[in-house]
Known about the structure:
This protein is an all-alpha fold. Helix content is 76%, strand content 0%. It has helices at residues 2-19, 26-45, 58-70, 74-95, 102-118, 120-169, 171-187, 190-218, 239-265, 275-280, 283-302, 309-340, 344-367, 374-390, 394-408, 417-423, 429-432, 441-460, 470-479.
Amino acid sequence: MISIFICGMILSILQSILFWKKDPGISAMLFVISFLVGLIYLMYKHKKVENKKALILAIPITLLSATYFVYHNTLFQKINVLVIVILTIIMCIYATRLHVKIQEFLVKAIELLAGSFESISDVIDSLKNKFKKKEDMQNEKAIKIKQGLKSFIYAIPVILIVFALLMSADSVFANIFENIFGKFQHIFMAENFVKFCLRICVIMIFFFIFSGFFVNILKKDTMFNSESEEKIVEIHVEKMTINMILTILNIFYLIFSIIQFTSLFSNMNTNDFDYATYARQGFFQLMIISFINIVMIVLAKINKENTSNYTKGMSILTLLFTTIILLSAFFRMNLYEKAYGYTYLRLFVYYILATEFILILPIGLWILDKKIDILKWTIGIVIVMYVILNFSNIESTIVKRNVDRYFENQEENEIDLEYLFNHTGTDAIGQMKRLLNAKDETVAKRVKEYLLQEKEDLQDTKTNWQETNLSEIKAKEELMNIK
């Protein structure tokens, strides 16, 4: 338990140093790396690593934490806190087990979270026991301590006299100790003392959270490490029900696919139809339908009864129709954004559709009973795509594509400056500067005012080393010549 307590205390103090009243920057990467090093060290020390390959997840976790240092995307900064926690949970589940079934994965994730708080009581009990042992040793030393205190009290007058003489004898010596005493005095002022106590309380709360998390993973008989087979949830749907749903869905998808090939795919280059308006109808609905299809295929596969060739055939057919649905959603989105411009949501749709396209191949192999762990493949593909999304500098991409679209035909195309001003930041400054060359003087003037305001905000912002951010540094350089 000593190693767990030491790691818990180091991490709790480190989070206070890095994050207390500070915006995340390089601090996020430093903390995540420290946490992963501590976690992996403890897992090896307590011989809990059953699957070393799972530790590869430390790479995307570290990469996501690095985005706080490289970019300044406030949306991803919020989302990535949750994603990093989820990836850490996944890494712990797979690292401590050789095999994880789909049905038990969610259960183990809940046990890891809930059990960490439950294990805080074990941390408290362990600390109490250690203090009790110390009390027995302290009774023997009590007499010596009292004698030492008496000696120290007698020595205080002499120490104070000598200290006062040294202060008056050397100004450098006096200044050093005046600064030290001044800092202590600053801490114990009423308002600062309350903040100091609050900070200590936060450190102790995180100590118990980190220690409870480690105890839940490393110790036997915790909620996470209990081996009760009853906790594995068996999802059962009757064979006839699954086959009926898949058959009916495939009939609808066949009709839908015929319509897509006749009205959307085959006539994309004609001008007698308002495709932007047509495309606006349905790409979100189609994306949701593709999710439903994948869920139905998974339900059909994990039921032991559904091993017939008919079920497999219907599942493969549903997967093929899902591909057509994804293509339809992709084309609709492409037509729509060409007409109305680029936004966060529209680019997110592209990444989601691309992720689903990639997942189709492993799902198809899984349906055909190929030896493939579909859960691992799904998690791996989703993680890779999400990391790519984070490092694609999405704000710069949004501005670049909107500016490119605007410059293609400045007389007819419009650009939504309000959206760009309100939804992008320092990551997109380089692309935003291109609009200073716009033919429309109103556009150029508004962009220049925006850039000057950004320059002023960056100059007025005082940052600590923990908040160091490459995007802000680069933006300052980009804005130096804007006057």
